[in-house]
Amino acid sequence: MHHRFRGLAVGAVALLTVSAALPAAAAEPPGRQEHPARGGLSAVVRYTEYGIPHIRAESYADLGFGTGWAQAADQVCVLADGFVTVRGERSRFFGPAGRTDGSLSSAGDNLSSDLYFRGVRQAGTVEKLLAEPAPRGPSRQAKDLMRGYAAGYNTWLRQHRTTDPACKGAPWVRPVTTLDVAARFYALSVIGGQGGAVDDITAAQPPAARPGGGGRAPDARALIRAVRERAADADMGSNAVAFAGGTTANGRGLLLGNPHYPWQGGRRFWQVQQTIPGELDVAGAALLGSPTVSIGYNSRVAWSHTVSTGVPYNLTQLTLDPADPTVYLVDGRPERMTRRTVTVAVKDGPPVTRTQWWTRYGPVVAADDGSLPLPWTTTTAFALNDPNAANLRFADTSLGFGKARDTAGVLASLGRHQGMPWVNTVAADSSGHTLFTQSQVLPRITDDLAARCSTDLGRATYPAAGLAVLDGSRGTCALGRDADAVQPGIFGPARMPTLKDAPYAENSNDSAWLANADRPLTGYERIFGTIGTARSPRTRGAIDAVAAMAERGSLTVRDLQRQQFANRVTVGELAAEDAARACAALPGGVARNKDGAQVDVSAACPVLAAWDRTAGTGSRGALLFDRFWRRIGALVPNAQRWKVPFSAADPVHTPHTLNTEAPGFATALADAVTELRAAGIELDSPLGKHQFVVRDGRRLPIPGGTEALGVWNKVEPVWDPAHGGYTEVTMGSSHIQAVGWDGSGCPVARTLLTYSQSSNPNSPHSSDQTRLFSRERWVTPRFCEKDILSSPALKVVHVHGR
């Protein structure tokens, strides 16, 4: 299948020129002919069903060119919005008070976002990382991909008019540079650290600059709560499981990846196959703005990622000079903070100038309403250390996965490039091997260092939340360096929690401890995550299901597909029977709601009892239980919710037995019944009638359930009872892939991009896969040449920059 693309034979299929752009999302020919950028870059983009492009090129720059062109055709408005963000120009075009889509930082408004990203530009941060020699900096191949991507995106802009109403005719849709593409990688890398604290960085000011500033002490409980909420509220999650050859029907591995990512905005996935004959042949999903496949497979190995429990940053507590709060002491010697004065252009107003304060440990963080409730007093300040601020290796790590021939190759790429900022990796290969590893960039906080160097605040936050707060006044509290680490101050590969060749390896965003319940991982530092603590309902349900699958054996890709859409509600299996029984025992079938009113809940009891404990679109009782469980979560603390508490000796099956005697149980039931009746929703109405999205004017019922319910097929919809129930999905199952091998050289794969390939409502590929997701159907992707060329939807485009 390694043919030179210029000699590609396509039979009766016509070769289309670039001006005959394919996705209807794409555009119309411009009124006047514009000449594309010079440079001679070119690629062939072949589209199969559902608008999935298969890009063939002769070099990495050409491959990036084809990828940038094809991504722009599907996602130009979302991409352009993100490039405005990383250039720090949102206030210029959208006004300072507007909000970002949250995909590239947690900034509360455009001004805060711009102050941060303009500061990054002004400091030359990304340029310096691009100049670092590999492996500490990006390889020539990765830089060629970025350069080509920018050229391809720009070529598409020159050759087409945008039809997407989100940015049609907008002045902010402009050409980009290699630096813009690299800056987007950078933003994704730091989103768990600096990017999650943008407001705290840009608002931090010395106490003399703030009225009444200077006296407040840090609150350990508030900080612990903030760190936990920051992790819990992140709009990313995921499940992934790899099965070893001993559990499968043909002795080869299997992988099911189910990442939970936003359905709108700049953190969407985009499907693609990328081929450089004789060099690279990989398929899967790229994050928008990225020229590499992030989650995917090739002819021998498949991988997916799950967001990890590792805390990718730490704090340093600064002891300040009593005479000057912008000077801090290290081993008794004063060091002056670095002022970063940033000016931002503002729409319909004068430019805004603010000062940020940076130290050897990172930026000072302090904001009354920021994500980290920390003060800056006359004696103390806090700096944020984010090692991913020196990490532009994500592209090379992903590229190494695409070239890998087995799970050992995946692990080797992680060890060589060390570029994964905040995710675990789960992989399987055609020889039957499995892999789980929490190989990510983390500050090198050992438990010993935390014991020696934690401040009073850190002694509370580190064991409770994994957040180290170190004493910055002592030079001996520096993070140090592992011999096998590519940069100072991070853990090397030898320290990463890793599980090889287990019958199954699974993660659902809990720590590495129970990647396999029979082979628990221990011995890692607290910053990676916890050991011996309660697992989430989603983890418990996942382990229970995949362990049973592995024990049953003879698994195929079809079994992976069934697991994805089993829609099992873990909490329902634990609590629905108890809830139904207690409901039936209520005197007179009556309970009081939160307002104290008596509510007849008797009709809810048989609905809960008869419910099938799933979140399928036809499930009756799922919506009632969902609304009830949300209420009980707000009214009854987790420690009081179960009669049988958690036991580390049986972590998959504890806690259990709903405590129906807890104050709040009956109220939660009454509230749920009141809420549904007020919305005109029958208690036994099918879930899909009220959990849906609207596409092309049609309601599409959506299967799945929320994090609190513990459903593998996670969806987080918006409750809007005035318009019928759950009327949109903000995040959840995204690029799903079930992959195996049969010895033919062509992977046996089924995929599904839940929100579809294009964000342009005018595109036929803006909702086609969403309709599949609604019906729990899959795409059979085309990987090998014979399959691509036999596609009845095949369309071919030569794209070039000459």
Automatic annotation (TrEMBL):
Residues 1-26 form the signal peptide. Pfam families: Penicil_amidase. Keywords: Hydrolase, Signal, Zymogen. The keyword Signal applies. Gene3D superfamilies: 1.10.1400.10, 2.30.120.10, Glutamine Phosphoribosylpyrophosphate, subunit 1, domain 1 (3.60.20.10), Penicillin Amidohydrolase, domain 1 (1.10.439.10). PANTHER family: ACYL-HOMOSERINE LACTONE ACYLASE PVDQ, PEPTIDASE S45 PENICILLIN AMIDASE. Belongs to the peptidase S45 family. This is Penicillin acylase family protein. It comes from Streptomyces bangladeshensis.
